[in-house]
Amino acid sequence: MFSFRDVFAHSDMLISGLAVSIVLCGIAGVLGLLLAILCAAFKTSGPRLLSWIVTAYVETIRNTPFIVQLFFIYFGVGGISWRMSPAFAAAVALTLNVAAYFTEIIRGGMADGSRGVREAALSQGLTTGQTYLCIVLPPALAKVDKTLVGQFVLVFLGSAVISQISVEDLTSAAQFIQTRTFRAFETYIVVTVLYVATGLALSLLYAWLRPLLFPWVKGAPQ
Amino acid sequence: MTPEATILMLQDAPAIEFRKVCKWFGNFQALADVDLKIGKGERVVICGPSGSGKSTMVRCVNQLEQHQNGDILLNGVTVAGNAAHVRNIRRRVGMVFQQFNLYPHMTALQNCVIAQRLVARRRRPEAEDLARTYLERVKIADKADRYPHQLSGGQQQRVAIARALCMQSEVILFDEPTSALDPEMIREVLDVMVGLAQDGLTMICVTHEMGFARQVADAVVFMDQGRIVEIAAPSDFFKEQKTQRAKDFLAQILN
Amino acid sequence: MSQFTTLGIVETILGKLPWTLLLSAIAFVGGAVVAGLLTTVAILGGRIANASVSIVISTVQSTPLLMLMFLCFFGLPLFQMEISPLLAASCALIAFTAAYLTEAWRAALRAVHVGQWEAALSSGMRHDQVLLAIILPQAVRIAIPPTVGFLVQVVKATALASIVGFMEITRVGTVLNNITFRPFFVFAIIGALYMALNLPISLAARRLERRFNFNR
């Protein structure tokens, strides 16, 4: 009844689709993290207006579906200003999505525990910028790193919808394959396994990376 | 003005001077008309019941708290000002905290080096040499590559002292440096502080450790409810207090 | 056509709002029922049952929701069922909701101090009596904030139903986009609608979180 062979015949499409998904999410992860570090700074110690803008941005992203954000950017913003490519729109939407969630997570990491250390840094004459980047941020990131990675995996899984604006990602490959082979169920099973496996691989990769990034964390080999 | 008189005046400029300093937290007055002069090389111990404003007073020196009235001068320069000015002041004033506040993601050595590089703009080899010197001074050089969570409370506080010394400040503020330590570790930190005093460091120390005050202080300042109530040399202060409040406080402490 | 006017656009979108709400309700209530069953099985069924439930939950949560919807849409007909977008989306969303809620509720039960179990059991009560009379009331208080908060995720998730053809506010947006060529306005309205639905829920969940955590 089930035949997976037809699906695997198209494994080149699956691989290239998966690669696109990973690359776009990877870009979004890096840029999103940088944007979130900035936004978290604005929200905790920036001028009132900037803090409010960040709050409005974060709440908008967190309370609307990603697909609507994607459509708004690709069709909406893309309709008004310059025509952007689907991949670019997807990258922007993913970045903004990642950054909003990361901002809240990072703020959570800075919440209690950093006040005394912050005062020590200021008392030595560091600027607020130096204090934030060199003294407060690294321990905060170490505290919430697993949450950040977990959120990133969620975004990766949610990136399946970028297929809806014709980005040639893994889901798009699946849709193509299933129309060709008429094996819709098997196709989506295979693609689901690929998504799950990649998510797992990302978590494992991070577990390996962690002691290299944060050598001071307890339990890390010295 | 004769040159000698000028030199005398410069020599007499107090390291730290409080002039009628007042500070409110909302409606609560934490400091009321605080007047105090601390000379170069002097060691001053500030004591008093909790809530008396001693920590606030010391934290106003490096503007971790901002006073509303009056003036605080560091070698004749007012400490209040814009962000850049305050940073300059903080370069010249070191602070040791009750909770140590070591940077948790840096080794003892890195803790001592970071401000040297970012603030004093020293090169890494020079900064590390200085750091090792001061870690040696506080007798913890062998733990230079350890992270704070691998050190005991007393060891962490000694690293914190070394960290403050590395900036080669004119004055070092101590805000209850031994209050968060287990009793066995208080001795090692106090020994270090006594050694620093003997080296001629200008120190303002908020503490309950009266033994330290007796041994090393040039003056004991007793505060209550935001005011300086008594100032005296330790020998005088511990023999006979002038006010009832000071008498009550000492009776409580020494029991 | 009336859809070309600004007001027409808003009316058209609002016209599909009940479908978003309906699907959200089906998913949340259905998911809660299934979660209740799974939680009970996990707590009272012994270690193997608990582990099995954990595996099922992990699998569902590691799967992209869009894949869940496609699998339901294309898989359910294989079992001789008549498939409609609403049915496929409902099944996927119920699974999605049940997985999250089961995990949240099991965590809430575990969060009740073990001393409560010990005290109740040592007075002679049976396991299920302890659960119902002592543990459950306390666990419910802990579970309320994340449960209410998850409603936001459910409402957002209904947007994916548009991809399998269910006509709710997101899908009508893509349709209107093709007709009116005013995508900025259309999707801004739709986004604002989701915010109008979700912001109050988010704020309520946060307030509940503060209230219940304070008392603990």
Give the count of helical stretches of chain C.
Answer: 8
Q: Roughly what fraction of the amino acids of chain B lie in strands?
A: 15-25%
Specify which chain pair forms the largest interface. Answer: A-C, 37 and 38 residues
The helix fraction of chain B, in percent, is 40-55%
| Gyration radius from CA atoms of chain B, angstroms | 18 Å
- Secondary-structure-derived class of chain B: alpha/beta
Give the CA-based shape of chain B: globular
- Estimated structural class of chain C: mainly alpha
SSE pattern of chain C? HHHHHHHH
Which CATH class of chain C applies here?
Mainly Alpha
Q: State the fourth-level CATH superfamily of chain C.
A: MetI-like
Find the CATH topology of chain B: Rossmann fold
Termini gap of chain C: 58 Å
According to DSSP, the number of beta strands of chain C is 0
Q: What is the mean pLDDT of chain C?
A: 89
Uncertain residue ranges of chain B: 1-10
Topology (elements, then pairings):
The complex is a heterotrimer of chains A (222), B (255) and C (216).
Chain A: H1 5-8, H2 11-45, H3 48-63, H4 66-80, H5 86-110, H6 115-123, H7 128-158, H8 170-181, H9 184-213
Helix pairs in contact in A: 2-3, 2-5, 2-7, 2-8, 3-5, 4-5, 5-7, 6-7, 7-9, 8-9
Chain B: H1 3-12, E1 16-25, E2 28-38, E3 43-47, H2 54-61, E4 69-74, E5 77-78, H3 83-92, E6 93-96, H4 108-118, H5 124-137, H6 153-166, E7 171-175, H7 183-198, E8 202-206, H8 210-216, E9 219-224, E10 227-232, H9 234-239, H10 244-253
Parallel strand pairs in B: 3-8, 3-9, 6-7, 7-8
Antiparallel strand pairs in B: 1-2, 1-4, 4-5, 9-10
Helix pairs in contact in B: 4-5, 4-6, 5-6, 6-7
Chain C: H1 6-44, H2 46-62, H3 65-75, H4 85-111, H5 114-122, H6 127-157, H7 169-180, H8 183-215
